[in-house]
Amino acid sequence: MRTIGLEEHFLTHELASHVAPSAAIAKPAVWEDAFRRLLDFTGERLDGMDLAGLDVQVLSLMSPGIHAETDPAAAVTKAAAVNDLLATVIAENPTRFAGFAALPLQNPKAAARELERAVTQLGFCGAMVNAHTQGRYLDDPTLRVVWESAVALDVPLYLHPANGVDVAHVMSGHPELIGPMWSWGTDTASHVLRLIFGGVFDDFPEAKLLLGHMGEGLPYVLWRLDSRWGFHNHHGVELARENPSDYLRHNLYITTSGVCSAPPLLCALLALGPEHILFGTDYPFEDMPTATEFLRTAPISEPDRAKIAHQNAERLLRL
Fold this sequence. Notes:
With about 325 residues, this protein is α/β, with parallel strands linked by helices. The chain is about 45% helix and about 10% strand. The protein is globular, with a radius of gyration of 18 Å.
C-alpha cells in the first residue's frame, strides 16, 4: 500500500539558529540525533523511509522556521532561498519527496506572492505555518491576503506548533509542561478556534487547514464546543455556520503525526470522517517504523486505511 507522510521535517545550517527554543526543550542527546537527521535529505532519511515502507515524504521546514525572523525583509529573502533549496531536492527525488512552502508572514503580501510562486512554479503542495509570526496569528486581518491566495490555488495551509508568545500562569513552575508534550497542543488548538471565531472560514468557506498530532485534541470536544456555543455570551461574534463543529468537519484535515495510538484514531474517524484524516510520522522526532506499523495494524477498515495512507493526500495535495 502506498504511504505518504505529511509532517516530515528538515532544517538548513543557515536557519539552525532559529530553532534554539525548540532545541532547549529536548534532552541534549535526543536533540543531537534529531538535528543530524534534520540536516540530511537523501542519506539516512531515504534509507529510513525504505526500511519503514514510507513511499513519500512531504517535506517542511522545522518549527519555528521563518517565523522566528524579526526582520521582515530578511524573512522574505530567507523564505525564497529555503523554498528554492527544497525545490531542488524534490526535483532530484521526484518520486520520494514533495514539499510545503515556508512563508514570510511578516510581510503578508510577500507571503501570498511566495505561496503562489511555490505552488505554480516550484510545484509545492501548500505551505507550513509554524504557530504565530512574532505574535500574529492566522486570523489577523492582514493575513487575509494569504488565505485568499491559498484558496485561489486550492492548496492547504498546515498549522504546526511552536513555542508560544508567552506562557500561561497555570504552567508557572512546571517547565516540563511547555513544548510538544502539552502546551504546544493547547496553543495550536486555540489557534484553530481563533480561525473559526475570527471569521476566516466564513470569509473563505473552502479554505483547507491541515493540523497534525491527531487534531491537537479537537476531535474529542466537538459536542462540548457546540453545547457551550449555545450557552455562552457570543460577545458580538456570530457564525455563518450553525456550530463550531461544522467548521472543523468541513475545513479541517488532520494527520496522525506523532500519535501512534488506536483510541484517538478511532475517535477522529467518528468525529471527522475518514476523508479528513491523513498520515504523518513527525520525522525525525518520532520513529518512522513505529508510525507505519501503527498505520498497517490499526483496527480500521481497509478502505479507511487506504484513504489515510495515500488516497486523501493524493486528492488534497494533488500528488
